[in-house]
Design brief:
This protein has six helices and seven strands; from the N terminus they run αααβαβαββαβββ. The chain has about 170 residues and is of the alpha/beta class. It has a single domain, classed as Vaccinia Virus protein VP39 (Rossmann fold).
């Protein structure tokens, strides 16, 4: 993980301030977003939470293409504002919205699906919260990083996303 952070800093993908965060903004490619939502089995009318929603791409696709009720939780006020504006421009305000707040302080008990693209240290902080809150049958789909002490129901290895990078998706069910 430290090597990944150093490479990202060197390549200019992350700033020093981002490296101090446990969940810096690093957008998921659209093709991977679609595969995450398909792997989760997201259905119309279900409730999805995206933890650390960045520019809102998972929330937007969940509402637009899967007809889900999608909520993003984003700490960065500028990213939350940006994604809220996108949602408004797309006319998705009834089924998609962004909470500008700390994802460790939200209630996920209504979630059918939780989408996660967080570094392992932050996953370790989120896991007890999800263990306590999500209902039986809820699914968690994680991009690239596993949850300790949870056994994935499915693992999807994607050799190349079209941008020269591989990805691993993990599906968990409570």
């Amino acid at each position: 993980m430290r090597r990944l952070l150093l490479v990202c800093l060197w390549a200019g993908i992350l700033t020093a301030q981002d490296a101090e965060k446990l969940a810096p903004y690093y957008p998921t490619p659209e093709t991977i977003v679609r595969q995450m939502l398909q792997l989760s089995g997201l259905k119309a009318g279900e409730k999805l939470f995206d933890l650390g929603s960045g520019d809102g791409r998972i929330v937007i696709m969940a509402a637009q293409k899967f007809r889900a009720n999608a909520v993003g939780v984003e700490l960065d006020k500028d990213l939350a504002r940006l994604s809220t504006e996108k949602i408004g421009k797309l006319g998705l305000g009834k089924t998609a919205h962004i909470i500008n707040g700390d994802l460790l302080k939200e209630d996920y008990s209504s979630a059918d699906v939780v989408a996660v693209y967080l570094f392992p240290g932050f996953i370790d902080k989120v896991q007890p919260l999800l263990d306590a809150q999500i209902k039986k049958g809820a699914r968690v789909v994680s991009h690239d990083f596993e949850f300790k002490n949870w056994t994935p129901e499915k693992v999807l290895n994607i050799a190349d996303d079209g941008e020269g990078r591989s990805h691993t998706l993990y599906l968990y069910r409570k």
